Amino acid sequence: xxxxxxxxxxxxxxxxxxxxxxxxxxxxxxxxxxxxxxxxxxxxxxxxxxxxxxxxxxxxxxxxxxxxxxxxxxxxxxxxxxxxxxxxxxxxxxxxxxxxxxxxxxxxxxxxxxxxxxxxxxxxxxxxxxxxxxxxxxxxxxxxxxxxxxxxxxxxxxxxxxxxxxxxxxxxxxxxxxxxxxxxxxxxxxxxxxxxxxxxxxxxxxxxxxxxxxxxxxxxxxxxxxxxxxxxxxxxxxxxxxxxxxxxxxxxxxxxxxxxxxxxxxxxxxxxxxxxxxxxxxxxxxxxxxxxxxxxxxxxxxxxxxxxxxxxxxxxxxxxxxxxxxxxxxxxxxxxxxxxxxxxxxxxxxxxxxxxxxxxxxxxxxxxxxxxxxxxxxxxxxxxxxxxxxxxxxxxxxxxxxxxxxxxxxxxxxxxxxxxxxxxxxxxxxxxxxxxxxxxxxxxxxxxxxxxxxxxxxxxxxxxxxxxxxxxxxxxxxxxxxxxxxxxxxxxxxxxxxxxxxxxxxxxxxxxxxxxxxxxxxxxxxxxx
Length: 529
Fold this sequence. Notes:
Layout: H1 21-25, E1 28-29, E2 37-40, E3 49-50, E4 55-56, E5 66-68, E6 77-80, E7 83-88, E8 97-98, E9 103-104, E10 131-136, E11 142-143, E12 147-152, H2 158-166, H3 170-173, E13 181-185, H4 197-212, E14 216-223, H5 231-237, E15 246-250, H6 251-254, H7 257-275, E16 281-284, E17 289-294, H8 305-318, E18 322-325, H9 336-339, H10 345-361, H11 375-379, H12 385-392, E19 401-405, E20 415-419, H13 425-435, E21 439-444, E22 457-461, H14 464-469, E23 476-477, H15 479-482, H16 488-503, H17 509-512
Parallel strand pairs: 12-13, 12-14, 14-15, 17-18, 17-21, 18-20, 19-20, 21-22, 22-23
Antiparallel strand pairs: 1-2, 2-5, 3-4, 5-8, 6-7, 7-9, 10-11, 10-16
């Protein structure tokens, strides 16, 4: 049978600039000897002979995209990292651009191997562990930041929360040099929440997680006063007790908006006086809990930023710390790589049950877990959710999976853990922070302006051109891996060093820009997929 060559529709992708010398000498990366595709480091014109694999490109190949290194028959698995990311949708000639136009999602047969590949982490002795300058709370927990939080118990309290926080601008905060700020947490749910018990539990668990968060020296809870799920319900259901560091305010009881704002400002000033008394001190890296996120992914994310971050997480875990993977719909198709490393078979099965919940939740809808990726992901070189999942799961490195948590559930295990969340970054990060993450590492290939409170976000660029274009927003450039100037091990060491620095109080780019106050987005279960 003759192979079929289809001229794919060009994508509107800017030409990459200033590639490294190694990238020009070898414009494609082969990730595994068994792979039948290679990935372009730079934009490659049609007609380019690729010496490393002995084929000539038949089409222009954008940076981050793939070509076939040999002829592929229709239905044959497409292998990247020696893992199936889909199946040839037609006969594909060697040198052809391989992307969503000729890759079918297909059905995979997965071998979950629950716990069969588990290997315990070899921890460093305590005296050899890395250290950072943290804030030790009275209960022994350790913070990376020192905020006072003002939390709306429902949307009806949002305006008052914003007005209270607006009273504490830069000039006012000069009186409290040890405090990082007064953080508002508002959202659009909860005023008359009478939805399913699961949705109610998720919302209240999220609010309680922020109220207890180690990066908050004190918190003010604000409610209107007639919510179905008000302050009393939250306190009772989540075992929260008002104290000197957990204050409450009911707008209706205060006498209206103006009176409530005045009382709220006074309450925050009292909290600030106590919060300002903290000092940083040397502590073990075991107290760092990193939420792992990726957004605006491209074909390089799974080759540079994600595996380099994974190596940094392996280092953190050896030092006793914790890494939190999430975005359940975006590990679909490669979840077996985690279940095989699970500490126990039950932990592996718990992850599979969450995958099954998502499949049922999305049944009959055109959602990402059914194969699609966002237009930006697609333009960046990702053909489907399997390919994105393969790269995304690498953020956790190769550490064993120690536990699986539901959304916003308190994280108690050290090591690599997984939290069930949607794939939407603000919602996912909100759940991880509610669970106790005190830092966020966010990889991106297309660019992201994401930030978060009270746990700061460190942003990692997958490629040098994007880093240069958005340097004011990016903290770390992982592009040297793609440029052939650094390997994953070296990049991982650099990321780990930066994590220790930012955990010690050095501001991230998003913090310096004041980004993060709008990214508190509890999961509206039943509405958002």
